[in-house]
Amino acid sequence: MKHMPSSVLRQASAWMARLSAEDASQTDQQNFEAWRAADVQHEAAWQKLLQLQANFDNLTAQGVDSRLLDKRGISRRQLLSWGMMGLGVLSIAGGTRTPYWQSATADYRTAAGQTRMLQLRDNTEVTLNTRTRLDLNNENHRLFLKLHTGELLIDNRRGSNEALALETPNGHISLSSALCSVRCTDQTTRVSAFEGEITFRTHGSHLSTDAHLAPGKQVVFDTVHTQPTGTASPADVAWTQGQLVAERMPVDQFISELARYRQGVLLADSRLANLSVTGVFPTTNTDQALQQLTRILPVQVNQISRYWIRVVPA
């Protein structure tokens, strides 16, 4: 590692950040594999990063509880980044910023695999899914929620008569005596309406009034565009029961969904692109979910380390 260029170390760190992101795609994985094979120094830098992962495992084995690190605001990705800085990397992840970094100081946060329920002062119940960042504000004695990333189930059917305001990176949502789920990344927001009055407006909307979302419907929008409405499904909120419901779901999409509930990197081999899966899987035990998948489909789980797993053809 004495003569390893810092630019290569930055690239390796950037790939770790990219593949750890919630919206990592199969194209990202393929591009990563091509980068890794293109130069022996790329592989050497990647192996160093995996060694830093092993060092993190050793911390927990030596009695440093990962929950203590989390309470102190230290994530595994931060620890790895600091390790790369110790090797002379001055710019972490090549400038890549994920929703985690953007909302690290949010009022309410959940870690991978964690859910949390909040009871607001007006009897509104808000349940946070895994990897969620939420701010709670008061504006003129009115509650105002700001969802940076992640997923919520909101029930204000027993709340006050005033509409509850929610902002995401893509737009504004208003809920009156409603039950709905909201999921967002830094690209899109998905709203599934189950009961009540729900309206929304994208940040780039030029309409004079907000759009209505009827109960039983679902909408996905970015800052400008709104996709045609679909049907809201109870499967959208199965996570509140610790379940991931798949119905003819492409395997790469399934692995991407399951990865949200697990620390580290969980990837699907591109050769599994034509497979789909149907079933109900636990989000509270992702190891069990992966073993369940191997009993349903001709796949196997390759575990490089505790924090690096790849699902490949059997």
From TrEMBL:
Domain FecR N-terminal: 10-52
Molecular functions (GO terms): sigma factor antagonist activity
Residue spans crossing the bilayer: none
Domain FecR protein: 107-198
InterPro entries in the cross-refs: FecR, FecR_N, Ferrdict_sens_TM
Entry protein name: Fe2+-dicitrate sensor, membrane component
Organism (species): Nitrincola lacisaponensis
Lineage: Bacteria, Pseudomonadati, Pseudomonadota, Gammaproteobacteria, Oceanospirillales
